[in-house]
Specification:
This protein has about 210 residues and is α+β, with helices and mostly antiparallel strands. About 45% of the residues lie in helices and about 20% in strands. It has seven helices and seven strands. Strands 2-4-5-7-6 form a five-stranded mixed β-sheet. Strands 1-3 form a two-stranded antiparallel sheet. The longest helix is centred in the first third of the chain and has 33 residues.
Length: about 210
Amino acid sequence: LAALQMYAEIITAEPDNAETVSVFTEKSLASIARMESLIGTLLKIARLDAGSISFAPETMLAADLAAKAAAELQTRAAREGKRLTLTGDRALTLCCDPAWTAEALGNLIKNALDHTSPGDEITVRWEQSPAMLCSTVADTGEGFAPADLHHIFQRFYRSPSAQNAQGTGLGLPLARAVIEGQGGMLSVQSAPHQGAAFTAAFLVRPPLA
């Protein structure tokens, strides 16, 4: 809001300067888009907390879920000089809400992009144990300090060592709420300078409602 007010004041002060109006109009639109995204995420979390979200589970290929989650992020990864790869048995399936779960997995990928540098790699892999189907987003980035792991799923939490990274501190809480809301579990393994791995685990046979 402060940025928008400043941009509006600049445009108001120089209405006849076409270049200034154009530049700060674009900045205003970018700020509005960020605000819309933030408000949208907050509303989704509030709805999940209130139990007003009805998940519509379907049996789908884990590979298709990963591809759906990563589709819009491949361009960002390439632009930032990072490698985003998908790997796993293409025959494996899981039962989940496709749209919500893809968004949760996408948030994990975004988090990995936020905490990696050019040349790093983000890998989305899926595998099955006798009881669980696990989708893991692992990266070769900076990792998290042990103290951060106790707070990493709290809303708006920002690691002191990552204040310059992108993000609002809401992607991971939303991902966890979506996964746990479907009877799954979200966990993290990480160490400083050793990357991070977030694993979403779903029951192979979800419990009856």
